[in-house]
Amino acid sequence: MSLSQAQGIVKNVKAFYNRFEKYLADKAFENNNISTDKMDQDQVANYDLAWIAAEIFAIDEMIAYPAKVEKGAGSIEENLSLFFIADALNDIVARFRLAAHKMGITSEQAEKELGTKDIYDFIAKFSSEEFAGKISDTLASTRDYGAYGLNDDQAMMADTFRKFAEGQVKPIAEKVHRQDLTIPDEIIDGLAEMGCFGLSIADTYGGFQSEANPDHTSMAVVTEELSRGSVGVAGSLITRPEIVAKAIAAGGTEEQKQKWLPLLASGEKKCAVAVTEPDFGSDVAGMKVAAVKVDGGWKINGVKTWCTFAGMADVLLVLVRTNPDMSLKHRGLSILLAEKAPTRDHEFDYTQPEGGRMHGKAISTIGYRGMHSYEVVFEDYFVPDANLVGGEAGLGKGFYLQMAGFAGGRLQTAARATGVMQAAVEKALQYAMDRKIFGKPIAAYGINRHKIAKMAAITQAVRQMTYKSARLMDKHEGQMEASLVKFYSCRIAEWVTREALQIHGGMGYAEEYEVSRLFVDARVFSIFEGAEEVLALRVIARALLARALGLKAA
């Protein structure tokens, strides 16, 4: 039984999945489109549909993984793949039981269609304690978590930023976290010198992204390695330039591109994103922060929240309602670039010469410290016409430009989750080898061996999903894959870091050990950049149902 047999098993799984997808699509179809109201009558089923789609994506990548990195039978790469596939199939089959019941399919019929005997045999062999122990023992003796599958340039970047994370980020990560400090200038300046902020910006505008041959994988690799050091101190620094630059590149005027993209790429100007409102998180259509046209520009009034890095930022991308007609929903939104003085303080209050005011206060959080997320209040805050993204042509297009930026952000968030998981696996393995209970290392106990194998397999699966999504984005594709890997990685990172902490026992709950920080940092992934439920139901499931009926997703 091998990966080739797994392909046959997965073929049956995909056929049953397609049947489930079509069933939910037919139920949600109304007036020649997918009805959100009808989808909401099956929210649990649609969430499961999105999750299973993500797991199938992961399985496909792990089936291809050993050959892609030119590793054969018995390699750590193949063993991680077999273990992951077995574990994911176990979860999928459990979810399919509920799906079959919902569709009115008998257990006998479902088992026949799925070929459950082959599935159960595969699961029994490759998720067994014995097989997991083999993987765990290999990891303990070699510290080889599997080849990444990078080209020479990407591997060099991974090595360069891994060294920076080890030498510059990790030594201060715990201090920044425990004392809730702001990221030191030497980290930001160091990454700017390395070209970090220009990784997603075209070389024609001072960045390092080739317009002719894009390479989103390098951005993911850098993000992962920095997040392995600390997601709050370094791993998230690229995210905001990524989002803002992509929005400007997608819809800005040529003058705006010429001005802002080189400044963002060099790190001369730092940026933040102000989209979420206290009463409107992912419900962008209902947002109320307004900008009123005045002579020479716009005046913003209202409150934005969860504006990460707003204190240190020189400019905020602000999604505002420029058309007061609420019936327009998201079509009444535009993007303004609001400039301000940067500060390292947890509170700021900036008054413009024109009299406008912007003041903000950092929100206390359990993790993800260093970046700091602010609630920001705008009072008649003036933004010149030159900073309306897209100019007159950009009016009403803010939602779409923001989404152009967030697509790359989702990919980057998956890379952040991968880095945090990799750090957690490494910490768990080392502690399990060092810690002895009842006369032997806890790494020798079956349950811990199984946990370590599963953690390593999941981390590699997410990494390969992320790289696949990045390669698709190079071809201006991969929107669905980026959403799937963001959804899956963020949720599963909680499990990986939770088990890493659990392996540490009581010491894992103490701030003395890095794993406690990894655990609370991972918890934010399923919330920011779009809560997992909204991403699953409003983005992924809706697109899947539309696809099943041959419709264009709204």
Automatic annotation (TrEMBL):
Keywords: FAD, Flavoprotein, Oxidoreductase. PROSITE patterns: ACYL_COA_DH_2. Its cofactor is FAD. GO terms for molecular function: acyl-CoA dehydrogenase activity; flavin adenine dinucleotide binding. The keyword Flavoprotein applies. It comes from the Bacteria. Residues 396-544 form the Acyl-CoA dehydrogenase/oxidase C-terminal domain. InterPro entries: Acyl-CoA_DH_CS, Acyl-CoA_Oxase/DH_mid-dom, Acyl-CoA_Oxase/DH_mid-dom_sf, AcylCo_DH-like_C, AcylCo_DH/oxidase_C, AcylCoA_DH/ox_N, AcylCoA_DH/ox_N_sf, AcylCoA_DH/oxidase_NM_dom_sf. Residues 152-268 form the Acyl-CoA dehydrogenase/oxidase N-terminal domain. The keyword Oxidoreductase applies. It holds the Pfam family Acyl-CoA_dh_1. Residues 272-380 form the Acyl-CoA oxidase/dehydrogenase middle domain. PANTHER family: ACYL-COA DEHYDROGENASE, ACYL-COA DEHYDROGENASE YDBM-RELATED. Belongs to the acyl-CoA dehydrogenase family. This is Acyl-CoA dehydrogenase domain-containing protein. The lineage of its organism: Bacteria, Pseudomonadati, Spirochaetota, Spirochaetia, Leptospirales.
